[in-house]
Design brief:
By secondary structure, the chain is mainly beta. It has 3 helices and 47 strands. The two termini are 42 Å apart.
C-alpha cells in the first residue's frame, strides 16, 4: 500500500489548486429547521436547461458550487423522503458570489412538469427490497467486465470457479434486465467475461425477495441492468472501448431511441472480441501418490448482440409492447495441462508425466421474444401480462489427447486420444400475470406464473485410434430434462401506524420434473429422474421510521434452490485422463430460511445483520476416484446443512467539497456440516470478510479521478475449499468534452496483481492445495458520445422470462 500514498498526495494537491471565482451557496433544512445532509443539488443553465454542476450538502446542510460563469441559472435540490426544491432565476454577475440563504424542503410531494432532474447517483443505494450498485459513470468500470464488477459489488463473493455467493450464501440467481440467465458453470463465466462493463448501468442485489419473485435461489437475485436510452424524441449513444493486459479486448456499442405520444422504439447493438489467460497450479495427495498439476488456459472469443423493442401507447391506460433480443457468441479455449505423478514418500522421483492439452471450439446462440400488455388506470389498479419464449443453443467440440511420458519426457509410454461433441438445446416458455389494487389502506398484489423448460443435452465421446474416431458407448449418453412450474402468490403491504409499514406474502409452487437418461449400453441404464413436489414460501417485512433520519427494517423469507440441469447428468466429463467431473441425479433441492435486520441513518448509512439456515445445501466437492488411484473427480452433493451469520455496513462520506468516498464492509461466519459415511465428513467453520472503498476527486479543468480497491479475507468456497486473502487496487481518470456529450475515460485495474486466489481442500482422503491467476491487470481507454434529446424518460419494463432456467448449462 506504500505506493498508494504518493498517488493520494498528488490528487489532494491537485484538489487544492481549484480556482475561487464566482460561487453559489445555500443551506438546506426541513420544516423542523433541521439540517438536511448529503442532499443532491443540481444547477442548470436557464437558457437551454443544460446541467452545469452537481453537488451535495455537507453535515451542516450547507452546499457550495464554485467556478461558475456569470449568467442566469436555476437550481434543484432533492432528498429521499422530501419533495424536490426548485429555485428559479438565479442571476450571477462577474466576481460576485451569491448566498441563497435557507432553502426548506416541503413535506408534501410536488411534481415538476417541465424538467426531469438528473443528479449524480450514489455508488450504492440501499432500498427497502434491494441494494443497488451503480456502475454507469464510475471511471474504474472502464475496460472491465461483468464478472470483475461482481467481485467489487457489496456483499458479493466470486470464487475460483466464478461461482457467485451473496452474504456468504451460495445459490444466487443471475438475471440480465430482469430475465434469468439459463447458464451456469463455464458457460455463465464465458458470458459474464464477454459482457463489457460499459454496457452495464447498475447491479441490483436482492438478498430477500418477496412473494412476487420466483422462490428459486437461496441467496436471492443479482440483476445486471444494462444501459438504455429512455428519452423523448430521437437520441442515442456510441461507445468504443479498448483494453490491454497480457492480451487485448475491445468492444463497440450503439443504442438509439425514438418516442412520440403514440409509440416508443428502442434498439441496442454491440460487437466485441477478447483474449484472456487463466493459470492454475495444484499439488495433490491421494492414495499414497503425489500429483503436481499445472494448467495454462487461453480463451479467445467474439460476439454480437442486438436488442429491439417497441411500445405502443394505445391510450392513457393501455400499453402493448414487443421485445426481441439475440446474441451470437463464438470462442476457442486452449488448456495446456501437465501433471507429474510420483509416490508420496518420494515426491521428487517422478514415475510419469501426463500431458493433456485440450482444445475446444464453442458457439452459442440465444434468442428471446416477449409480448407485454399493461393496464394502469392511474388510481392504483394495474395489470401486467407477459408471454415469453426463449431459445438457447450451445455447441462445443473438444479435442483431448492424453500422452504419458517417462520422467525425462523423451518417450511416450501410452497415449489416449478423445474427442467430445456436447451440443445443448434449451427452450423456455412462460406466461405471467400480475395484478395490483389499492385497498384497505394498502396495496394488494395477486399473480400467477406458468413456466416450461426443456433441455436436450447430447454428450458424445469418441476414441481416436490411428486417426479414426469411434464412439465410446460406455462414456456417451443423451440426457433430456423437462421441468414445469406452476406458481401463484398473494402479497399485501400497508402502513400500520404513522411510522410503521408492514408487507406480507405467500407464494406456492408446484414443480414437476422428469429427466430421462438415454444410454447406448443396456447395463448402464438408470431410472429416470421423476420428481413432483409442492412448496410454500412465506415472506414478511416490517419497517419502523424511528425518527426522520433513522429507520429499522426486519425481513423474513423462505426460498428454494433446485439443482442445475447439467449437474444431474451422471456421466463423466473428462478434463484429462485422471481428472473428471460427474453429475448426481439424486440431488435434492435446497431449502433456506433467511432473516435480515437492517438499520439506515440519514438515508445513506446502512447496516444489515443476516441469519440463514440451509437444508440439503448443494455444494461442489473434490474426491479421489474409487477405481483408479491416480484419478480424482469433481461432483455435487447435498450438505446436511449450512448456517450463515452475516453483517454488512455501507457508508458514503464527503471528505471535502471535491473529495467523495464510499466504504462498504461485509463479514460472514459459515458453518458447513455433512457426513457421507466411511470417513467422508465435512466439518468446516470459517469467518470471512471483504472491505471495499472508492474515492472520487473533482480536479481542475473538469477532470475527475477515482481510486478504488478491495481487500477480501480468508474464506471457504463450496463445501471444503478454504482460500486465503486477496486484494486489488484500481485508478482512473475521466473528462467530458463537447458540452458534456463526449466522455473520455482512462483506467488501470489490479495495479499490484493481487486479485488471484490460493487455497486448500481436504476431503475423503484427498488433499489438494493450489492457486490461480488471470488477466486482471489491465489498462483501458473508453470514448462515449451521446447525441439527441437527453431530457425526458420513457417507460421501463421487464419481461416474464426473467425467473426461468437459470440452472441450465452446456459445459459438458
Amino acid at each position: 500500500m506504500k505506493h498508494l500514498f504518493p498517488l493520494l498526495a498528488i490528487l489532494l494537491f491537485a484538489n487544492s489548486l481549484l480556482s475561487q471565482s464566482v460561487s453559489l451557496k445555500g443551506v438546506l433544512q426541513n420544516t423542523d429547521n433541521e439540517s438536511v445532509i448529503f442532499a443532491n443539488i443540481a444547477l442548470y443553465n436557464a437558457n437551454d436547461s443544460s446541467l452545469i454542476k452537481v453537488e451535495t450538502s455537507d453535515e451542516a446542510g450547507v452546499f457550495r458550487i464554485k467556478d461558475l460563469q456569470a449568467g442566469v441559472y436555476y437550481l434543484t435540490a432533492s432528498y429521499v423522503g422530501f419533495a424536490d426544491i426548485r429555485k428559479e432565476n438565479i442571476q450571477l454577475t462577474a466576481d460576485e458570489s451569491l448566498d441563497l440563504g435557507v432553502l426548506t424542503f416541503a413535506t408534501s410531494a410536488v411534481e415538476l412538469n417541465e424538467v426531469s432532474v438528473t443528479a449524480q447517483r450514489a455508488m450504492v443505494e440501499i432500498k427497502p427490497d434491494r441494494t443497488v450498485f451503480n456502475v454507469q459513470g464510475t471511471v474504474n468500470s472502464v475496460g472491465s467486465d461483468a464478472i470483475s464488477l461482481l467481485r467489487k459489488a457489496p456483499s458479493v463473493t466470486v470464487d475460483n470457479n466464478d461461482n457467485i455467493s451473496v452474504l456468504g450464501r451460495a445459490g444466487v440467481l443471475l438475471y440480465v434486465d430482469g430475465k434469468r440467465l439459463p447458464l451456469t458453470g463455464q458457460e455463465l463465466s464465458n458470458y459474464l467475461q464477454s459482457l463489457p462493463a460499459e454496457q452495464i448501468d447498475r447491479i441490483d442485489i436482492i438478498t430477500n425477495p418477496g412473494a412476487k419473485y420466483e422462490a428459486e435461489g437461496n441467496a436471492g437475485i443479482i440483476d445486471i441492468r444494462l444501459k438504455k436510452d429512455e428519452n423523448l424524441g430521437a437520441n442515442g449513444s456510441l461507445t468504443a472501448t479498448g483494453s490491454q493486459g497480457r492480451f487485448a479486448k475491445a468492444n463497440t456499442n450503439v443504442s438509439g431511441n425514438y418516442r412520440n405520444k403514440r409509440v416508443n422504439i428502442f434498439a441496442n447493438a454491440g460487437v466485441g472480441y477478447g483474449k484472456i489467460f487463466h493459470n492454475m497450479d495444484f499439488q495433490s495427495q491421494q492414495n499414497g501418490l503425489s500429483l503436481t498439476e499445472k494448467v495454462r488456459s487461453i480463451n479467445t472469443w467474439d460476439y454480437g448482440n442486438l436488442r429491439l423493442g417497441t411500445d405502443f401507447f394505445l391510450n392513457k391506460k393501455h400499453t402493448l409492447g414487443f421485445l426481441v433480443e439475440g446474441r451470437l457468441f463464438g470462442g476457442n479455449r486452449n488448456d495446456f495441462n501437465r501433471i507429474t505423478l510420483a509416490q508420496l514418500d518420494a515426491p521428487t522421483s517422478i514415475d510419469s508425466i501426463l500431458i493433456a492439452d485440450n482444445n475446444a471450439d464453442d458457439s452459442r446462440t440465444q434468442n428471446t421474444w416477449n409480448l407485454n400488455y399493461r393496464f394502469d388506470n392511474g388510481k392504483g389498479r394495474t395489470i401486467n401480462i407477459d408471454l415469453d419464449y426463449g431459445r438457447y443453443k450451445n455447441d462445443s467440440d473438444r479435442f483431448q489427447p492424453n500422452q504419458y511420458f517417462n520422467s525425462a519426457e523423451t518417450q511416450i509410454l501410452t497415449e489416449v486420444i478423445n474427442t467430445f461433441e456436447t451440443p445443448t438445446n434449451i427452450e423456455i416458455s412462460t406466461f405471467k400475470i400480475d395484478f395490483e389494487e389499492k385497498m384497505l389502506g394498502g396495496v394488494l398484489g395477486i399473480g400467477s406464473k406458468l413456466s416450461r423448460v426443456v433441455s436436450d443435452n447430447t454428450f458424445l465421446v469418441f476414441d481416436v485410434i490411428d486417426g479414426v474416431s469411434d464412439r465410446n458407448d460406455r462414456s456417451s449418453n443423451l440426457f433430456k430434462y423437462e421441468e414445469n412450474v406452476y406458481a401463484g402468490y398473494i402479497n399485501f403491504a400497508r402502513p400500520l401506524a404513522k411510522n410503521w409499514n408492514l408487507s406480507a406474502g405467500l407464494r406456492t409452487e408446484q414443480t414437476d420434473v422428469f429427466g430421462d437418461l438415454q444410454v447406448f449400453l443396456s447395463e448402464l441404464r438408470q431410472p429416470p429422474v421423476d420428481l413432483n413436489y409442492l412448496n410454500w414460501f412465506p415472506s414478511a417485512g416490517l419497517t419502523w421510521q424511528v425518527a426522520p433520519q433513522h429507520s429499522l427494517a426486519l425481513n423474513y423469507g423462505r426460498r428454494i434452490n433446485r439443482p442445475d440441469y447439467n449437474i444431474l447428468n451422471p456421466f463423466n466429463d473428462k478434463l484429462s485422463e485422471i481428472s473428471y467431473q460427474k453429475g448426481n441425479p439424486f440431488l435434492n433441492p435446497e431449502i433456506v430460511n433467511n432473516i435480515e435486520l437492517g438499520y439506515t441513518l440519514a438515508y445513506r448509512y446502512n447496516l444489515k445483520l443476516g441469519y440463514s439456515k440451509t437444508l440439503n445445501q448443494i455444494t461442489r466437492l473434490i474426491a479421489p476416484d474409487e477405481i483408479d488411484p491416480r484419478a480424482n473427480f469433481i461432483t455435487w452433493e447435498n450438505l446436511a446443512n449450512q448456517t450463515t451469520i452475516s453483517f454488512n455496513i455501507s457508508a458514503p462520506v464527503q471528505i471535502s467539497e471535491k473529495w467523495n468516498a464510499y466504504f462498504n464492509a461485509t463479514a460472514s461466519h459459515l458453518d458447513n456440516q455433512a457426513n457421507y459415511g466411511e470417513g467422508a465428513i465435512v466439518d468446516v467453520q470459517v469467518f470471512t470478510y471483504m472491505i471495499f472503498q472508492q474515492h472520487t476527486f473533482n480536479l481542475p479543468s473538469k477532470f475527475q479521478a477515482e481510486v478504488s480497491g478491495y481487500f477480501a479475507g480468508p474464506g471457504v468456497w463450496g463445501g471444503v475449499f478454504e482460500y486465503e486473502s486477496n486484494w486489488s487496487l484500481d485508478v482512473g481518470l475521466q473528462r467530458r468534452f463537447l458540452k458534456e456529450q463526449l466522455n473520455v475515460r482512462l483506467s488501470a485495474s489490479d495495479l499490484f496483481y493481487q486479485t488471484g486466489w490460493d487455497g486448500i481442500s481436504s476431503f475423503n482422503g484427498l488433499i489438494s492445495e493450489g492457486g490461480g491467476r488471470w488477466d486482471s491487470r489491465r489498462v483501458s481507454l473508453s470514448l462515449s458520445h451521446n447525441f439527441g434529446n437527453q431530457k425526458v424518460k420513457s417507460r421501463k419494463r421487464k419481461t416474464g422470462i426473467e425467473d426461468e432456467a437459470g440452472r441450465v448449462s452446456s459445459e459438458n
